[in-house]
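---------- Forwarded message ----------

FYI, see the Ribulose bisphosphate carboxylase small subunit record below. Original note from H. follows.
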Amino acid sequence: MESIAKEVDYMIAKGYIPCLEFDEVGQVHRTNSRIPGYYDGRYWTLWKLPMFGCTDPSQVLQEIEECKQVYPNAYIRLLSFDNQRQCQCMSFVIQKPTSATVANA
């Protein structure tokens, strides 16, 4: 958890907006489709809302722990967004359970 805390410190110091996502299957794949608005497994479920205005890394770590307690058998990833450049800057998996369902590729 110490390495995650350092990553969160970096996010907050850079002014990024932390966000948590989870998925019990952990499936993210790309399939070409010509249908407008079709997003094939590209997004996981958002845990609450992005943490706009968060300046305390302990708040993010607390949300991570709550998400782990509610979804112990889910993949959980932490993302950060730069609201100036309007892009995702960081993303990494913080929980990868052994009991989670493996997606068929």
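H. also flagged this: The mean pLDDT is 85.
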